Amino acid sequence: MSLITPDFDRSVIVRDADAEVVGRAPTTIRLLADSSATGGALSTQRVTLTDGADGARPHHHGNSAELFYLLDGTAQLLSGEQVVSAERGDLVIVPPGVAHAFAAAPGENADILIVITPGVERFEYFRHLERIAYGKVPPESLLEVQELYDTYFRSSAAWDAARH
Predict the structure, then answer these.
(1) Which residues contact residue 118 at a Cβ distance below 8 angstroms, ignoring those fewer than 6 apart?
(2) pLDDT score of 97 more than 60
């Protein structure tokens, strides 16, 4: 087992008013701290989903765990082949290599704090997603940057069944 030793010497403080927001309802993402700000320790963002909106389709990270903490609302989370319903105050941590996805539960809102550790530079990934949503680049362009963001897309029958 290797230990990640973060390389930063000052506290990271991000004021709500200073956080970059990408997207618009029903899916907004607040970019809080990227890996470069935390010396590689973690990257974190807050995702707000309204009215049953999808968050991320099934994928895995080869080198990072992903933590989901429900600040409010109800979400569905895929962890492996299990779809979990999570409510305010619930925590789900998915280990590296395990398929996961998330969305607001049907007809519900969800406000989720997401932490990826060790950190991966992810802010540009979310900006890329926004460009896809606005039709500026094709969805297939994500396949070209999977390695860069340690995000590998997968299929999941369990997720498809839960979401449709």
Answers:
(1) 4, 35, 40, 41, 42, 63, 64
(2) yes
